[in-house]
Amino acid sequence: xxxxxxxxxxxxxxACIETCPTEALSMEDDKAVVDEEKCVDCGACLDSCPxxxxxx
Length: 56
What we know:
two-stranded antiparallel sheet, 4 strands
């Protein structure tokens, strides 16, 4: 199961993208998006988000 990103909370800082070991995260319309096929639900991005916009 892939992580979820709350588009309302995401500030587009891209910290999660830099942290993701599988390159499952990218930016779209200045918000982070998850490629569910690449996400291995490791949780690395959870701690990198300064506004807690990512949940498992």
